[in-house]
Amino acid sequence: xxxxxxxxxxxxxxxxxxxxxxxxxxxxxxxxxxxxxxxxxxxxxxxxxxxxxxxxxxxxxxxxxxxxxxxxxxxxxxxxxxxxxxxxxxxxxxxxxxxxxxxxxxxxxxxxxxxxxxxxxxxxxxxxxxxxxxxxxxxxxxxxxxxxxxxxxxxxxxxxxxxxxxxxxxxxxxxxxxxxxxxxxxxxxxxxxxxxxxxxxxxxxxxxxxxxxxxxxxxxxxxxxxxxxxxxxxxxxxxxxxxxxxxxxxxxxxxxxxxxxxxxxxxxxxxxxxxxxxxxxxxxxxxxxxxxxxxxxxxxxxxxxxxxxxxxxxxxxxxxxxxxxxxxxxxxxxxxxxxxxxxxxxxxxxxxxxxxxxxxxxxxxxxxxxxxxxxxxxxx
Amino acid sequence: xxxxxxxxxxxxxxxxxxxxxxxxxxxxxxxxxxxxxxxxxxxxxxxxxxxxxxxxxxxxxxxxxxxxxxxxxxxxxxxxxxxxxxxxxxxxxxxxxxxxxxxxxxxxxxxxxxxxxxxxxxxxxxxxxxxxxxxxxxxxxxxxxxxxxxxxxxxxxxxxxxxxxxxxxxxxxxxxxxxxxxxxxxxxxxxxxxxxxxxxxxxxxxxxxxxxxxxxxxxxxxxxxxxxxxxxxxxxxxxx
Lengths: 380, 240
What we know:
Largest sheet of chain A: 3 strands, antiparallel
Protein name (chain B): RNase III domain-containing protein
Family (chain A): Belongs to the ribonuclease III family. Mitochondrion-specific ribosomal protein mL44 subfamily.
Oligomer: heterodimer
Helix content of chain A: 40-55%
Largest interface: A-B, 58 and 57 residues
GO cellular component, one term (chain B): mitochondrial large ribosomal subunit
Subcellular location (chain A): Mitochondrion
Number of domains of chain B: 1
CATH architecture of the largest domain in chain A: Orthogonal Bundle
Strand order of the largest sheet of chain A: 3-4-5
Number of strands of chain A: 5
Distance between the termini of chain A: 11 Å
Strand content of chain A: 5-15%
Helix content of chain B: 40-55%
Structural class of chain B: mainly alpha
CATH superfamily of chain B: Ribonuclease III domain
GO molecular function (chain B): ribonuclease III activity; structural constituent of ribosome
Radius of gyration of chain A: 26 Å
CATH class of chain B: Mainly Alpha
Shape of chain B: elongated
Structural class of chain A: mainly alpha
């Protein structure tokens, strides 16, 4: 797969005209900024599909002394965290203004306890004795990951697996969920010190209405010496926010059941627009297209000029079509013949990979009747 | 050139000559030579070699899919039966024949997600008296050693082997000496049989059927192995 999805040779496309140069620069620069800012959509940075807390450095296992394990290891109901014993009662959680607003803003049902929201906003911290969201976010993440995968597989059955993983990451990766938590759910983090809280006469309970976590500091300002203050529980800001979203979704599953959590994911996560077509980068689109047609037992592609204007001017436009036998696969335009040809092949490949069935039903839907099963990427 | 003659070669189409009545014209076509044994630089390998895995020729026939098919037929009166072509796809790995045949990668990906979700659902839906439980659902066991072990490649491979699903499996396991060995079963490759079977059932019959299949058929065996392995780990740990 890695051989198939590679860089679009933007530089080589450009011929003489200034206009085309600007056009290409816009395309490539937008792709670059996207990959820099948003780690969710790159093909290079994310090689394996793992969530941040599942990496090798922080293995979560029962060997940690924190977990009480019953005699029969399969009695999962009897497992118990030792350190987190305290719980904010629901009656007190109902008095916290930010929890009440969050509950109302997310349109949660009356079954959903306010105390669960408090728990969802509490990340594991050193010396914290209140129940936290660690395991809830694990459950929320598998729930999210399943629903997003089945959505992508039903709607884009031919996506190559690396693009599928990137699209999943773009929907439910740490940075996307950080955006959901901060800008859509309006979750705030608890940044004030105890002294500031005392001086502003803030009731003690109000801190539970905010996201609390041990911040993982990577860089410090110049002139400040960094002591190793990172704890095993330290989280990056994006991860902490994302975990709160995952935990809230797990809470919906616990209180209202699978159907409600599915609807919530559909409303808040799957409704977000991601541009899958920009995740493709083809190095040699023409070659790839002829290989693809060969494996599909179709005639090899022929590029034909459809129309052109201003061949001898400084801003010519060529429109070419890609044909396999009598069928036109795609159309491409450009200010040189070569550019138009490359665009045309890219369009044909994208039309194939981004095929989407009409009214695709998901496997977890009522009245589901079979999925379009892709045969996989043929290499040669 | 000598190396070329030493190995057994097969010549498929040679110079084809055509004679016409009025004038003699010879059309020569290119010779294609397939190399069977040693790799010879520049020679094309015989496709028959590539389409054979552990002595079994690839193809959609009853003989190839009999193990998977009879296994599904024996469960719940054949409720989970699948199309023959889908069954063949389930037992074909990406590594086989350079990925030119329909393979199970995406089914395995979907199946893996389903297995992980159902393992978590199974863990939190157990009876509990924990004070930290939310609406009688205790999340505390998630991420524990036993919970994580349920969906490991090792146990999914064990499941596929014990049910005989891996008897005919089209894949190419490259051992260092370039040979194939029927006893070498890398878990990363063989676990895709189980996960893609789950994925295929979900793709054909829906999530409810897949969930039932996992709970009643897969977990029945896998949870027992988890228990066995967990005990072993403890014994090893106590010796340290």
